[in-house]
Amino acid sequence: MRIVSKSALFLFLLCWVPSASYADIKTPQAATLAWDTLSVATAEGVDVWLQINVVGAGTSEQVDLKYIYQTAGQMATPNDDYVPTNWPNGTKGAITGLQRVAYIRIQIINNTYTEPIETFQVVLRSDSAATVISGPARATVAINPSRLMIPVVGHLESCVHVGEPANNTATTAGMIALNGGWCSSDFKNEQLLAVDYYSLTPSRNGTITIQLENTTPDQHNLQLYLYYLAGNGQYQFYRQSTNSGQQAELITAPIAVNTSYLISVYWESASGAKLPTYRLKADFP
Question: How far from each other are the two terminal CA atoms of the chain, in whole angstroms?
Answer without folding.
Answer: 62
